[in-house]
């Protein structure tokens, strides 16, 4: 946790201030940090966007959204306290000179600039910031994903930003890295002999990483038509989770030591071969169906586009620790529920002693890391039903919950990321070589799909993807719901 009085940051420039991300997540996160006294005492916040508002008009808009996010009466004073820090400027972010003019008066202190805007506007906005001196050391720049749409475009964008600000002051956001459960994964792995001893190919049979959404493409159709599920979720969130699960122990918790190990994993991912694209991957698009008892329409993309809303890939990491262990990566929209989980399935015991169940029917040991909708860690073991009335020894599943104790406060992802960016801790942000390595593997999947002519499947909204999705999904999901 940072000391807000020692933090040198004096100005937060929040670009895209009227957008959905800023209004639903960023400003509410700032509100909670303000209420807890964790923002620097003199920090000023300037929202910038194209919408025509003055300070009072933007404050009224923001007040309403904050009241929706924190409706209790005690939050009213905190809301007014945060609004007292906030200014607003209307600016065309495609015009670097206009950006320079909008931030020219914030010099003389340390700026944290957060670009919650389309990546196409990153170069002009960053150029304007640089011309105004707002990127001069020790100021920092935060960038939302996506960084490019493929390796080539990502590399061009990385080079443009690198020409304006040094890498160690560039903070690329993947909000999954700010989740407490993700950080707890490192604590469990590297702080406990019990887990680290079995965290390898000798004891682990498979790893499943699932990011399921019950919502559809609604409101993001233009973006999604060009991106699809693989680019939108696998290339960023899921590969970051994979890297944390699979990385070697870092020599320290210093930011670059952690990121060095993540890059090694991403570079060890086996490129997808077009010959194995069909058995190792699945892409599909949802049709009409039912979610939570409500009829929902299918997704019809714009003419000339062919995006998938469901993507599944079995990946392999070609190194000593993980040789032969499949990593099943799955994401999809309009699935039965919203759930993000990492499921590590251990190999069966070498010699089975028990009468019931039979060896083939015994549930394997599993470590399940649940990220959303609730954060929880579960260890699945087997225990005995033996009693004096039993003539045989029977085992049953035993789930050990490792959830956070009731009443312990957990910061949501963007709160933690703001705190780290304000204090200059980059461990939970994505480095440029991570972006390049993730795109290199993702490009191999996209190329294999194209070269193999992989057909687009379909599934009704409310189901766990097409029938063949079962081979990629964690076994703890309700398989009867598969179409």
TrEMBL record:
Domain Glucose-6-phosphate dehydrogenase C-terminal: 186-473
Residues that bind substrate: 175, 179, 213, 232, 333
Residues that coordinate or bind NADP(+): 92-93, 145
Catalysis: reaction(s): D-glucose 6-phosphate + NADP(+) = 6-phospho-D-glucono-1,5-lactone + NADPH + H(+)
Annotated GO MF terms: glucose-6-phosphate dehydrogenase activity; NADP binding
Pathway involvement of the protein, from the record: Carbohydrate degradation; pentose phosphate pathway; D-ribulose 5-phosphate from D-glucose 6-phosphate (oxidative stage): step 1/3
Gene3D superfamilies: Dihydrodipicolinate Reductase, domain 2, NAD(P)-binding Rossmann-like Domain
Keyword set includes 4Fe-4S: no
Gene Ontology BP, a term: glucose metabolic process
Any single Pfam family the record assigns to this protein: G6PD_C
Record-listed E.C. numbers: 1.1.1.49
InterPro entries: G6P_DH (IPR001282), G6P_DH_C (IPR022675), G6P_DH_NAD-bd (IPR022674), NAD(P)-bd_dom_sf (IPR036291)
Superkingdom, taxonomy of origin: Bacteria
Keywords (A to Z) from UniProt: Carbohydrate metabolism, Glucose metabolism, NADP, Oxidoreductase
Location of the active site: 237 (proton acceptor)
Positions of the Glucose-6-phosphate dehydrogenase NAD-binding domain: 14-184
Coiled coil: none
GO CC terms, sorted: cytosol
Free-text function comment from the UniProt entry: Catalyzes the oxidation of glucose 6-phosphate to 6-phosphogluconolactone.
Annotated family: Belongs to the glucose-6-phosphate dehydrogenase family.
Record's protein name: Glucose-6-phosphate 1-dehydrogenase
């Amino acid at each position: 946790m940072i000391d807000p009085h020692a933090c040198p940051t004096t100005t937060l420039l929040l670009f895209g201030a009227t957008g959905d991300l800023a209004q639903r997540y960023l400003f509410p996160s700032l509100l909670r940090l303000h209420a807890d006294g964790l923002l620097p005492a003199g920090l000023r916040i300037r929202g910038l966007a194209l919408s025509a508002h003055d300070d009072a008009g933007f404050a009224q808009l923001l007040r309403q959204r904050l009241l929706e996010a924190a409706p209790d009466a005690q939050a009213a004073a905190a809301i007014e306290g945060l609004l007292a820090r906030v200014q607003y400027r209307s600016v065309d972010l495609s015009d670097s000179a206009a950006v320079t003019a909008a931030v020219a008066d914030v010099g003389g202190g340390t700026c944290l600039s957060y670009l919650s805007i389309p990546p196409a506007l990153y170069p002009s906005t960053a150029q304007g910031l640089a011309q105004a001196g707002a990127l001069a050391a020790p100021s920092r720049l935060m960038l939302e994903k996506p960084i490019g749409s493929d390796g080539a475009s990502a590399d061009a964008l990385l080079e443009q930003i690198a020409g304006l600000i040094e890498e160690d002051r560039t903070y690329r956001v993947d909000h999954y890295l700010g989740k407490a459960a993700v950080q707890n994964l490192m604590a469990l792995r590297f702080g406990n002999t019990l887990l680290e001893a079995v965290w390898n190919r000798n004891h682990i049979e498979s790893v499943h990483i699932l990011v399921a959404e019950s919502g559809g493409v609604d409101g993001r159709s233009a973006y999604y038509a060009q991106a699809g599920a693989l680019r939108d979720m696998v290339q960023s969130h899921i590969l970051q989770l994979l890297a944390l699960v699979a990385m070697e122990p870092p020599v320290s918790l210093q930011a670059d030591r952690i990121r060095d190990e993540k890059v090694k994993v991403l570079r060890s991912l086996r490129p997808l071969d077009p010959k194995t694209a069909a058995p190792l991957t699945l892409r599909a698009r949802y049709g009409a169906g039912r979610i939570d008892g409500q009829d929902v329409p299918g997704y019809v993309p714009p003419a000339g586009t062919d995006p998938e809303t469901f993507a599944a890939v079995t990946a392999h990491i070609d190194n000593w620790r993980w040789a032969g262990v499949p990593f099943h990566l799955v994401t999809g929209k309009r699935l039965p529920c919203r759930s993000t989980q990492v499921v590590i399935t251990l190999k069966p015991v070498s010699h089975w002693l028990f009468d019931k169940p039979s060896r083939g029917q015994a549930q394997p040991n599993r470590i399940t890391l649940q990220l959303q909708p609730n954060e929880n860690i579960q260890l699945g073991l087997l225990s005995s039903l033996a009693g004096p009335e039993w003539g045989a020894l029977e085992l049953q599943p035993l789930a050990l919950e490792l959830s956070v104790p009731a009443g312990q406060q957990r910061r949501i992802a963007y709160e933690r990321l703001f705190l780290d960016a304000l204090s200059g801790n980059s461990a939970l942000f994505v480095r440029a070589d991570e972006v390049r390595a993730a795109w290199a593997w993702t490009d191999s999947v996209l190329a294999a799909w194209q070269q193999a002519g992989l057909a687009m499947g379909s599934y009704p909204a409310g189901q766990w993807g097409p029938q063949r999705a079962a081979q990629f999904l964690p076994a703890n999901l309700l398989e009867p719901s598969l179409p």
